[in-house]
Amino acid sequence: MPELSVVIPAYNEEKRLAPVLESIISFFAGKGIDFEIVVVNDGSTDNTGALVKQFAVQHKQIRLIEHAPNKGKGYAIKIGVLAANGELILINDADGSSPIAEFDRLLASIKNGADIALGSRAKPDPACTINALPYRTYIGNTFNRIVQSILLPGIYDTQCGFKLFKKAAAHDVFSAATINGYAFDVETIYVAQLRKYRLEEVPINWNNIPGSKVNIFVDSLKMLIEVLKIKCNAARGKYSQKKAAAINEYSSSTK
């Protein structure tokens, strides 16, 4: 069983994924960590799947899970997390906007007692540099203020795609997840709080990478609707009962 699983959701990422895989493999191999990379191909219509299979020929650490059609980032991450075998599970975006070296910051938080370490672009820290487009920062901050007022007071950044979980916490939280879209982050953090897991928000360095699949205006509205759905689910007690982690029904490939 590996020490670490890196879960990467991928939708039409043939142009951005290769350097991310290379950096992850180099980083953890250099540290002597026993790791696996679980790439979830979320119904891509380009050559994302073929690219991952090519990498897997040379790197036994890579596993590919595929499904079609596209079902959303939240869905892809859920099935990737529930299929992960590592004692720690790192969620990492396919664009590499969070440098993999920032893992060390999250790991320090886990070693200090956190069950879940949340990479944050918004928690103040003069030692960290955030290179983001101004209008995306404004809209992201506006969304976060709404989330804080409705569900998660005190969390600076729910949407950073760089999070580290202890395996038991990850499998429990994601087994309860219902949101397939981008607000899955809000839901999983909210469930984790309800179930009394210790969370720590950790400032990290972050760079905007061109080619985002997010439509900042359309998807922001969808996310707001999803946040309201989470609020309704919570009122109905949907998240209160812990469940055994679901068994992933999708076949994986290492070829």
Number of helices: 8
State the distance separating the first and last CA atoms.
19 Å
Specify the helix fraction band. 25-40%
Rg calculated over all Cα atoms:
17 Å
The top-level CATH class is: Alpha Beta
Mean pLDDT: 90
> What is the third-level CATH name, the topology?
Spore Coat Polysaccharide Biosynthesis Protein SpsA, Chain A
DSSP, total strands = 10
Report the CATH superfamily: Spore Coat Polysaccharide Biosynthesis Protein SpsA, Chain A
Assigned CATH architecture: Alpha-Beta Complex
Largest sheet: 8 strands, mixed
Multimerization state = single chain
Strand order of the largest sheet: 8-5-7-4-1-2-3-10
DSSP strand content = 15-25%
Shape: globular
Structural class: alpha/beta
What are the key terms here?
single chain, 255 residues, alpha/beta, Spore Coat Polysaccharide Biosynthesis Protein SpsA, Chain A, two-stranded parallel sheet, 8 helices, globular, disordered C terminus
What's the SSE blueprint?
Elements: E1 4-10, H1 17-31, E2 35-42, H2 48-58, E3 62-67, H3 73-83, E4 88-92, H4 103-111, E5 116-120, E6 130-131, H5 134-150, E7 162-166, H6 167-175, H7 184-194, E8 199-203, E9 206-207, H8 218-235, E10 252-253
Parallel strand pairs: 1-2, 1-4, 2-3, 5-8, 6-9
Antiparallel strand pairs: 3-10, 4-7, 5-7
Helix pairs in contact: 5-8
Question: How would you describe this structure to a colleague?
Answer:
It is a single chain. With 255 residues, this protein is an alpha/beta fold. The protein has a single domain (4-248), classed as Spore Coat Polysaccharide Biosynthesis Protein SpsA, Chain A (Alpha-Beta Complex). 40% of the residues lie in helices and 18% in strands. The chain has eight helices and ten strands. Strands 8-5-7-4-1-2-3-10 form an eight-stranded mixed beta sheet, sandwiched between helices. Strands 6-9 form a two-stranded parallel ribbon. Helix 1 links the parallel strand 1 and strand 2 (35-42). Helix 5 packs parallel to helix 8 (218-235). It is globular, with a radius of gyration of 17 Å.
